[in-house]
Amino acid sequence: MTVDAINLCLQTRADYVEAPPIQAHFTYKIWVTIGPSATTADTCTVTGWATFRSSSATWNSPKQLRGCSAALRTGTVYDMAIMSTDTTATYFAPHGCITLDWDSGERWQQCYSGEGVRAN
């Protein structure tokens, strides 16, 4: 059975690191699946970033853009690494957007925020 849908999955991992001032290693991936008849879009882009929080500050990472046009009309999972970084933060919340563009100039975008993770 083919599912004609657009799916975006935000996958995070946080590992505690004992190397002050570094508190954690944070890894973030986005998986995209676009069903064969889910869209007639010509291009696909994913934007990913994270909110970091330490005991004294909260900040957002720079936004990372990845092309996902290879996922259009395939129905297969397209896996993209967004970031892998050491940080002084102990809490991370992932955010991601999928943007579909048509050659006619039309655009559709949907954004999501995932559950936050804490390095322990």
Could you characterize what this model shows?
It is a single chain. The model has no long low-confidence stretch (mean pLDDT 88). The N and C termini lie far apart (41 Å). Strand 3 and strand 4 (58-60) form a beta hairpin. The strands form two sheets. Strands 3, 4, 5, 7, 8 and 9 form a six-stranded antiparallel sheet that branches. The protein has a three-stranded antiparallel sheet with strand order 1-2-6, with no helix packed on it. The radius of gyration is 16 Å and the shape is elongated. It has 120 residues and is mainly β. Helices cover 0% and strands 63% of the residues. The chain is built from no helices and nine strands.
**Parts with pLDDT < 50 across at least 5 consecutive residues:** none
Give the helix/strand class: mainly beta
SSE order, one letter for each helix or strand = EEEEEEEEE
Gyration radius, in Å: 16 Å
> Averaged pLDDT, please?
88
Oligomer: single chain
- What form results from the Cα inertia axes? elongated
| H/I helix tally | 0
**N-to-C terminal Cα separation, in Å?**
41 Å
Beta-strand share of residues: over 45%
- Number of DSSP strand runs: 9
The largest sheet, given as strand count, sense and whether it forms a barrel, is: 6 strands, antiparallel
Helix content: under 10%
